[in-house]
Amino acid sequence: MPLQEITEADLIRHLPHAQGKEVILFITAFCGTCKLAERMLDIVLATSVRIQIRKLNINYAPQLRDTWQIASVPCLVILEDGRPTRFEYAMHSVDHLYKLLQ
Prior knowledge:
The chain is α/β, with parallel strands linked by helices. The protein is 33% helix and 26% strand.
């Protein structure tokens, strides 16, 4: 199942109520590296990892992009209870992402 897309407005409404660990992948539509990151995350999701992973087009997320100072895409933002705790720009491999999201 492909990553679910979320809008900036929906994510901002969700963050104050978020509990636990979840992940947002910031992408752009025509970014080849972003497509590769999506495929890698799809593989990770097919394993035993049970974490909410959604994607957000950075072009439509100026508030979060500026607040979180996201410098480039793809950018994997790991959230704990609605707060960013890690920004991962290099996806490296499926194994790396799997270990990161355990």
